[in-house]
Structure prediction request, 127 residues.
Amino acid sequence: MAGSQAEAWLAWQQYLLKENRLQEVLQELAPQVEPEEVAEEAAPVRACWRYLTNRQDQLDYRSALAAGLPIGSGEVEGGHRSVIQERLKISGAWWLEENAKKMLALRVTRANGEWQAYWHQLSQAVA
Prediction:
């Protein structure tokens, strides 16, 4: 496939995934899956096929997009910088493991917008 043709093909497959048309993507990939005798590192289509097949129940992109959720991993993978490291790597700070876990739980609660609900639930439990 030429460059622009490959880009168009990829864009179409992405569109299909965002529309929850995974089976069409798998059908398109099937004839291109490398034979088993091809080494894993030389079989990118097989790796893609396996990834998509093993995660069929996790690929509801249409619902995620409708809910305003990210569908890429970048935001999740980058979250450790703003949610975790920002607090735990303060200059001169050190943590016992159990305290760090508690602090992380609080940071994640706040980052998820559940701060008020957490404290409300806690006050209800104490009352």
About this structure: The mean pLDDT is 87. DSSP finds seven helices and no strands in the chain. The CA atoms of residues 22 and 56 lie 8 Å apart.
